[in-house]
Write a structure and sequence with these properties.
Elements lengths: L12 H20 L2 H9 L2 H11 L6 H12 L4 H22 L1 H11 L3 H10 L2 H16 L4 H10 L4 H25 L1
Helix pairs in contact: 1-4, 3-4, 3-5, 4-10, 5-10, 6-9, 8-9, 8-10
């Protein structure tokens, strides 16, 4: 059965849409029930709170709730401290995603690009322009409100060095969290 995508190779678009919808619903629930404030009152120590929120700031399922948590924390915490501790947690989350999720995402991409498309993409990845453009685009995705899995997959496909990944993850998540905190302070 050449040319057919098996059940294991089929991309998980339906599942991904369900995960996004669940994440947004969870974020709304957290915001409506003031769960971040309750959690902060229980923990009471900004570095731990921000680190935990940063850890969850990386995944598709937990991105929206973590963003709500950072917005809540930013009302009472210095933006730079919040971003520094949150980015440290995000690095740990990104490393876990990088090692445990990147293969599944790469498999989905490869299932979509099988055959002649796959050969063309592989040739493109060997060009000097894409050898630096794909990691930069992956870093920008990590800094954006998009889930880090997409950026991590781009970094994984471009065979990014682990030290570079850690540096990019910290810097880009720091920037993303800082933007949230500064937006709360400005508003």
């Amino acid at each position: 059965m050449k040319g057919r995508i098996t059940q294991l190779q089929r991309p998980h678009f339906g599942r991904d849409i369900l995960i996004i919808a669940t994440s947004i619903s969870l974020a709304v629930f957290i915001a409506q029930h003031d769960l971040v404030a309750r959690f902060m009152n229980t923990v009471g120590f900004l570095p731990v709170e921000a680190f935990i929120a940063g850890f969850f700031f990386t995944s598709l399922l937990t991105l929206a709730p973590a963003g709500v948590a950072f917005a809540e924390m930013a009302q009472a915490a210095p933006a730079m401290q919040l971003a520094a501790w949150g980015a440290a947690g995000a690095v740990i989350g990104d490393l876990l995603l990088f090692f445990f999720v990147r293969d599944a995402i790469s498999d989905d991409v490869m299932a979509l690009l099988r055959g002649s498309w796959l050969r063309k993409i592989k040739v493109l990845f060997k060009t000097p322009f894409l050898s630096w453009a794909v990691p930069v685009a992956g870093a920008l995705v990590i800094a954006s409100p998009l889930p880090d899995e997409v950026g991590l997959a781009m970094l994984g496909l471009s065979k990014t060095d682990l030290r570079f990944l850690i540096l990019v993850s910290y810097a880009m998540n720091f920037l993303g969290i800082l933007i949230i905190a500064l937006a709360v302070h400005a508003g």
